[in-house]
């Protein structure tokens, strides 16, 4: 991570540590279906990026059931589009 972005991440995390004491590691990250699809298409290594952004603090990624249903629907529509 570049110096400027790392500094901004550090400052943001420090702000939340001081002003929102209920937000502390392990952080819980809720992933959206559109975000997952775009990260897969762009081949973004999510866990490494999250680790860099959160300064190697503990985190857990969560995906909601509705997101899983959305991804299932997107995969079926993509399969139908490629088979035609």
Structural overview:
The chain is elongated. The chain has a two-stranded parallel sheet. The chain has 4 helices and 2 strands. The mean pLDDT is 85. 63% of the residues lie in helices and 12% in strands. The protein has 84 residues and is mainly alpha-helical.
Alpha-carbon distance between the two ends: 42 Å
Structural class: mainly alpha
Q: Beta-sheet strand percentage?
A: 5-15%
Tally of extended strands? 2
**Estimated helix fraction:** 55-70%
Per DSSP, the total helix count is 4
Uncertain stretches of 5 or more adjacent residues: none
For the largest beta-sheet, the strand count, sense and barrel status come to: 2 strands, parallel
Mean pLDDT: 85
How is the largest sheet built, in terms of strand order? 1-2
Radius of gyration: 17 Å
Shape: elongated
How do the helices and strands follow one another from N- to C-terminus?
HEHHEH
């Amino acid at each position: 991570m570049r110096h400027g972005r790392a500094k901004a991440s550090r400052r943001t995390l420090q702000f939340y540590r001081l002003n929102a004491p209920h937000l502390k590691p392990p952080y819980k990250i809720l992933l959206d279906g559109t975000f997952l699809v775009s990260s897969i298409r762009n081949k973004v290594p999510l866990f490494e990026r999250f680790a860099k952004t959160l300064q190697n603090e503990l985190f857990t990624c969560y995906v909601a059931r509705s997101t899983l249903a959305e991804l299932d629907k997107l995969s079926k529509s993509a399969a139908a589009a490629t088979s035609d």
